[in-house]
């Protein structure tokens, strides 16, 4: 019968750590009955023992393959290591386990690390781990939105985004940037997120620190300015249609109300601005 990893730790531990490791074994075996990962936080006192953490890491590194969270005894031990405030321990954990998990598309392990980060509150020593885990799910979510293949499921994404606030904010911003090109309406944008308008407005304000309608207005004004500046040889009506205006009158009203100039005045001023910029560039000013 194969020896459990926690038993291997006890058998291979230096004598100075034997009593502590035996206590850890008892604690871990009891925790394996727990349903919540949060209960693993009771292992925090063991994480202060740098020698014990080093021993756990060395034994894990000698395993024939990366430890799988499908084997439940590794879950509390990964939590224990994550709770360490030692830079050396965190670097080893990052480079020998977290990064290999990401490269090998070990989604169950990456999802478990979301749980670890969520329950620990992501203290400063775990910032690098948090970045690595967030990047993993963000890149795959971007693939999904771009209709590229990803091995992750929608439930995987939702689980990770619910537990990691930086990941949720980054994905929210990515979706806003992609979807906002299709509409200038907060109601339509909320629909693209499958959210009620009130929920969308609330989440938008928390992430962007401004109302959604104001942000959309600013983006629209910025796009109109860019079009009038760089597409100076195009008819004004073509620029108006490109920016969602059904008539020249509506375009004129928007520009005079929101930008304090008529489209033709903006066109001239922005073209003059472009000419000055080009002149400076060519003259090396």
TrEMBL record:
This is HTH araC/xylS-type domain-containing protein. The lineage of its organism: Bacteria, Pseudomonadati, Bacteroidota, Bacteroidia, Bacteroidales. Residues 185-269 form the HTH araC/xylS-type domain. It comes from the Bacteria. Keywords: DNA-binding. The keyword Lyase does not apply. It comes from Bacteroides stercoris CC31F. InterPro entries: HTH_AraC. The keyword Thylakoid does not apply. PANTHER family: ARAC-FAMILY TRANSCRIPTIONAL REGULATOR, REGULATORY PROTEIN POCR. One of its GO terms (molecular function) is DNA-binding transcription factor activity.
